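Hey,

Quick one before I head out. I ran the complex with beta-D-ribofuranose overnight. Inputs first:
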Amino acid sequence: MTQKIIIDTDPGQDDAVAILLALASPELDVLGITAVAGNVPLALTEKNARKICELAGRPDIPVYAGAARPLMRELVTAEYVHGKTGLDGPDLPEPTMPLQQGHAVDFIIDTLRSNDEVTLCALGPLTNIAMAFVKAPDIVERVREIVAMGGGLFEGGNTTPVAEFNIYVDPHAAQTVFKCGRPITLMPLDVTHQCLTTAKRVAAFRALGTRTGEATASLLDFFERFDEQKYGTDGGPLHDPNVIAWLLQPELYEGREINLEVETGSELTMGMTVADWWGVTDRPANVNYVREVDADGFYALLVERLAKLP
Ligand code: BDR
Ligand code: CA
């Protein structure tokens, strides 16, 4: 039995590696990829998604463009991390596969209405998913599960002192999604900061000797330079592939069900994930908040799977 997923994403080097991991994994049936504005504007994220499908030899995957800006706030991008294309690093060709007609939000709605047991994998700001839930509330109960990268508690923020990028960019969308009532697993910075792209780990991708291995190593070489400088580590955190790895090998992770709310009122703490890890409120649990990862196991999975791609 394969697991049906939609990947909602703003590629982004780490989004790219997450997409590659999904496309390399026979347990997952990628029904489509929906692009959202985030790391870079929408025109680039949708193009980058198509570049990655072609890199993986999968031009058959439908890619849709979604929201060009957050629900309520101005778009904030992160070229200072990802470069001006969002996928700086390797020299990937311009995609030739088409962008699908229609809006990503409508694709999400139609796909959930016509398929059972679809999991939503959220790798960027949650705008598209929140819009789909607001436009078509009937689809919410049809979602099997949402697995998202975002937020942080023990590590603080990476965009403001308390806010992680995906949640900061569209806190209203995040709050809508976290309150939807369906099972949600969250991969926060507390996990992704354990997954450093050390020189040895990046070398293992290059050693695959394939175009995907080489491109992955170049993506990560570029991606890590900002965080290496910031945190003084060997390599930087690798965020988004944790969403896909959790679907494939949940035993690599440990977390617990807690209540999590998103700050949308205060400009100072905008986008903070107020995670009640210690259960100091009686607010009901709404997320499986993951806190620990077997980072070596995570990289072993990535290398094993990416080796299957051209
Ligand atoms: C998240 O923001 C983006 O920079 C990454 O792609 C990841 O989804 C990390 O905060
Ligand atoms: Ca992302």
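Strands lie at 3-9, 28-35, 63-65, 118-122, 143-149, 184-187, 253-258, 260-262, 273-275, 287-293.

Talk tomorrow,
K.
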